[in-house]
Amino acid sequence: MYIKSLDLKDYRNYSDLSIDFNDGINILYGDNAQGKTNILEAIYISGTTKSHKGSKDREIIKLDKEESHVRVMVERKGVTHKIDMHLKKHKPKGVAINGIPIKKSSELFGIINIVFFSPEDLNIIKNGPSERRRFIDLELCQLDKVYLHNLSNYNKIISQRNNLLKQISFNKNLLDTLSIWDIQLVEYGIQIIKRRSSFIKQINEIVYDIHSKLSGKKEELLIKYEPNVMMDDFADKLKGSLERDLLLKITNVGPHRDDISFLNKLIDIKKYGSQGQQRTAALSLKLAEIEIVKKLTGDKPILLLDDVLSELDRNRQNYLLNSIHDIQTIITCTGLEEFISNRMNFDKIYRVVEGTVTNENILTSDVIQRKTGGN
After folding, report:
1. Are residues 109 and 218 in the same domain?
2. Three-state DSSP state, 249
3. I need a surface site. Which of 117, 323, 335, 343 has the fewest CB within 10 A?
4. Which distant-in-sequence residues (6+ apart) come within 8 Å of 46 by Cβ?
């Protein structure tokens, strides 16, 4: 699987962009705030319909325009797919696959499998539970359409139930209708808990060895799923939380409150680990994510690295770069020094300056001479 080309129209700081990618290592380099990350974001949106930043469509569209167009050509198992996406300021986005409009985003998921790694992901362990739930959900929604269906319905029911809890404070007669939502909430919630549990087990089967190698066999990483409620007690816990729910006007129990923890020899890395240990665990998690996609889809994902190398020490840089030699990778960075110092070969180099992308089309040896002043 690899992205063949990307076309953007009125997308953030790009009025009109057309770029072809190699199926190997592609580098986008340039100063900060030039538009490098916007390209990665557009690719991510084309596979998931959502920005990795959580941005709204209206925030992505060029300021003086009413809509934006994203087109991606992707090859998967010898078949080329065209994904067209129109982002609109005042209407829902429109998506077409191979020229045929789709009605649900679930029809898009699975055409492209993307692993996105940014400096923010290095903080996934020490940030709040919502970051870790987001990691699980984004990955599972790409891999499992049943999970996507269950999660979508669960979130809709949570929204409806919370709205009803607010209305009950003004009309007590509505209390009898709450049970209708509770039955559905438990039904979908149990499925979410079940799938998240199996997903964490799958990650643990892979991440242990990765982390052991990254830490020089000094650490043993275990990821532990911490459900807010268990499958067999969700209904009872929901009923027991009713008084608190009515008081706070929100649903206080359920998988929307789940978390995961990271343990090194049973010691909680979030609480007691150093920053280096936390970053190593986060990197291990992302590398395990790549292997999970390979295992479950029989294909290699597309890896997007957003200025991550500058945040890692030499050992972690080397391990990461050695791990991605067989998958398409699109990397953003401010300079090429990390690649030169690691003597890494790359297939395409693009320089990004104020929304203009130029293919430099130069050999690694040329880059080394120019950057190091060699003869």
Report:
1. no
2. coil
3. 343
4. 6, 70, 72, 83, 85, 112
Residue 300, classed as helix, strand or coil, is coil
Residues 6+ apart with CB under 8 A from 27: 331, 332, 333, 336, 339, 346, 348, 349, 350
Q: Confidence band (pLDDT; 50, 70, 90) for 338? A: low
Nearest to 288 by CA among 303, 277, 273: 303
Question: 146 and 275 share a domain?
Answer: yes
The β-bridge partners of 94 are 86
159 shares a domain with 106 = no
| 306, 292: one domain | no
Residue 106 gets which letter from DSSP?
G
CATH number of the domain where residue 237 is located: 1.20.1050.90
Residue that is last in its domain, among 238, 265, 298: 298
Cβ atoms of 180 and 160 closer than 8 Å: no
pLDDT of residue 340: 67
Is residue 137 within 8 A of residue 151, CB to CB? The reply is yes
Take residue 353 and report the two structure tokens written for it: 């300056």
Q: What is the dihedral of CA 322, 327, 332, 336, to 10 degrees?
A: 40
211 and 108 in a single domain? The answer is no
Question: With contact defined as beta carbons under 8 Å apart, do 83 and 5 qualify?
Answer: no
Its domain, for residue 339, covers 1-113+300-375
Residue 35: DSSP 8-state: S
Beta bridge partners of 332: 28, 306
What tens digit of pLDDT does each residue of 192-249 get?
999 999 999 999 999 999 999 988 899 999 999 999 999 999 999 999 999 999 999 9
CB 87 within 8 A of CB 80: no
* DSSP helix/strand/coil, 250: coil
CATH number where 28 lies: 3.40.50.300
